[in-house]
Structure formats: structure tokens, C-alpha cells
Amino acid sequence: MLFASTELAARIERAEARLMADVAGAAARRRPQGGCFATPLAGGFATFAAPGSPINKVAGVGFAGPLDAAELDAVERAYAVRGVPVQFELACLADPQVGALLTRRGYALVNFENLLGRRLPVERRTAVFGIAVTESPAAERAAWLDLVATGFASPDTQGVPSHESFPREELERVMDDMAEAEGFVRLLARHAGEPAGGAAMRLFEGVAQLCGAATLPAHRRRGVQGALLDARLEIAGRGGCDVAVVTTQPGSKSQENVQRRGFELLYTRAILLRER
Fold it and tell me: Quick one: which of 12, 101, 105, 129 has the fewest CB in 10 Å?
């Protein structure tokens, strides 16, 4: 059993916050006039890349000291100037005083997300007939982005629905910025020789973050998702990681799939929102 201690949660949340900060940094380098920022906040980061971006949020807070009200004031003003709400993703293992402070300031609970994990390394699984998974080189970056965005356009509808959705062009931009982060790995799956699915992963301080995977509708239910997952776990184990984690909507097909492959529910994050 992989026990969800506060120490483990702190490692995972630090990796999540640093990934968001790295993506915001890449966005700032590519679009210097876009108002991007990555502001340290109570051990985590508040990040912004563009209106409507999935990385406009506060992550990793609650594991490194109290949340200072004056620092939170500044972060809230930064989001307000850019015309977007403030969204906290707060782990249930974080300091409870953070949630109490946010509630007093008018933040509303809008959703939950589950964080699942499993120990690494893992035994290599038998290859699925007809499916080949390889790391996607820089020359295939545009094709990989197109495939992943197309797969995400047909989202998982099982379980608790997400409170947000994003346009295709914003998803492509974020994934492209994310690919600039150190330790980021892209993978491409081919079924019968044709591109069928894509996935991504970030390796950071022993934590392998499975950042998302998508399969084209014509190639679903043939084992593509499982092959992509197995390949990432093998790469992460070789890369020295001792834990792999994935974030899912509660009760979703994605959660069901990873639990079938040995992932355990570690903890839940509350999504708290304050409208601009």
C-alpha cells in the first residue's frame, strides 16, 4: 500500500506547483506582452498564462507555513487586473487554516479532483499486439499536439463532470508551453502503424506526473491508453522516480483505468473559486 502521508502529499503538490510555474515561465518567454506570471505563495505558486488558460490557478499551498493575507491580497489583485477569477486547488492534507481563510474571503467550493498514485519501479508489462509506443521527438511536436488536442475534444463523460472546459487552441498552447519544462516527456502510440494516441509526463524530484493522455476516437477500446500508461511507468522507473501520480475527475473512466493498473486513491483536492 502507498500511504498518503502529509510528507508525500507535500512532494506531489510541490511538483504540481513547480510544473505550473514552469509553464507560466515558458508562456512569458513566448508571449512577453501577455501578462503571464508565476508568483510564489505559501510554498506553492499562483500562475497565469492567458485568459481561459488551464494554468490560471493557485497550486501547492498549505504545506510550507501559513497563507499570508497580504500576499493573498496581491495575488487576487493580479488576477483581477487580468479579468479572471482566482482558483485554488487545495489538497485535503494541506493546512486546514488555508481553507478556513479562503472561505472567510468569499471563495466558493465548486468541485473536487482526485489524486492517485502508485509506487515505482514496476514490472514491464507484455506489449499489446498491434500497438507501438515511442517517445515523440521534437520533429513530431506539431503532429503530437494535433493528435492530443483532437483526442481531448471528445472528453470523458463518466463520473463527476468538470466545472470547466477549454477551447482547443488554448489546450494546444498550454501543452506546447508545457513541453518546454525540464523533465517533460512526450509519447506517441501507433495502432496498426497509424498514429492513435498521445500522452505526456513530467519527471520532477522523484515524482512522475502523468500530465494527460488522449486516444483518437477511431482507435479507442484497443488498449492504446493502457499501452501509453505502461510505457510512462517504465520510463519513469528508469528515470529514478519512486512514485507516479495522476489527477482525475472523481468516478471518471480515467480513474477507473488507472486503478485497474495499480494506482491507489491518495487524496482529494478541493477546487475553490472566487469570481472576479
Answer: 129
